[in-house]
Amino acid sequence: MEQLKESEKFIGFSNIRKFWFAIGKPITMLYYGFLLAYVTSYINDRTLKKAMYISSMILLLISIYFVTWTLWYRQDFPENLYYITIGVISVVSAFASYYLISHRNNLAIKIQYLVNFISKKIYTRYIADQDKKEFVNESLQLYKEKILDE
Predict the structure, then answer these.
(1) Would the pTM of this model clear 0.85, i.e. be above it?
(2) Which residues 6+ apart lie within 8 Å of 40 measured at CB?
(3) What b-and-e string marks burial along 26-65, b requiring 16 or more CB atoms within 10 Å of the CB?
(4) N or C: which terminal CB in the chain sees fewer CB atoms within 10 Å?
(5) Residue 130 and residue 88: Cα distance in Å, rounded?
(6) What does the pLDDT look like over 49-97, one tens digit per residue?
(7) What is the DSSP letter of 135?
C-alpha cells in the first residue's frame, strides 16, 4: 500500500491537480514580473522607470522563490533562507518605495509650479485689467468642478 502511494506522487504532491494548484500562482506572478520588466523599457521618466524595474525584480524574486519551493524535493527550505529572503525583499522594496515616492513628489512639484505659473504670472502679465474678474471667476468655477468634484 505504501509503495502504491509513493508511486502515485507527482513531485511531492499526491496528484497532478494539487501540483498545478500549488504552482499556478507563482507561475502567474513570474509572467507578470517579466511583463512588468518588459513594459518598464517603454517608460521615459527615469525615477518611475527605476521604481517599476525594482518592483518587477521584487515580483520576479518572489515568484522564483515560490516556484522553487513548489518544485523543491524536500519538505521545506532551511530557516536561514527564509530570513535572508525576507531581508533582501525588504531592502529592495524600500528602494522601490523610495523611487515611487520621489517620483510622486517630483510630479507634485511640477504641478505646483504649473499652477503657480497659470494663476499668478498669466494673471498679472497676460490678462487685461477688464478681463481679470472674469478670469478669476472662471478659474474658481473650474477648480470647483474638476478639483473638488462638486
Answers:
(1) no
(2) 49, 52, 53, 56
(3) beebbeebeebbeebeeeeeebbbbbbbbbbbbbbbbbeb
(4) N
(5) 63
(6) 888 888 898 899 889 888 888 887 766 778 898 899 889 889 988 988 8
(7) H
**Residue 139: C-alpha distances to residues 36, 130, 147 (Å):** 39, 16, 11
pLDDT tens by residue, 24-49 = 999 999 999 999 999 999 988 888 88
Q: Which three cell numbers stand for residue 140?
A: 474658481
- Which grid cell is 129? 485689467
Distance of CA 75 to the CA centre of its chain: 32
Name beta bridge partners: 13.
10
For the beta carbon of residue 115, count every other beta carbon within 10 angstroms: 11
User: Integer distance in angstroms from the first to the last C-alpha of the chain?
Assistant: 72
Place of cell 478681463: 131
Q: Are 48 and 103 in contact (CB under 8 A)?
A: yes
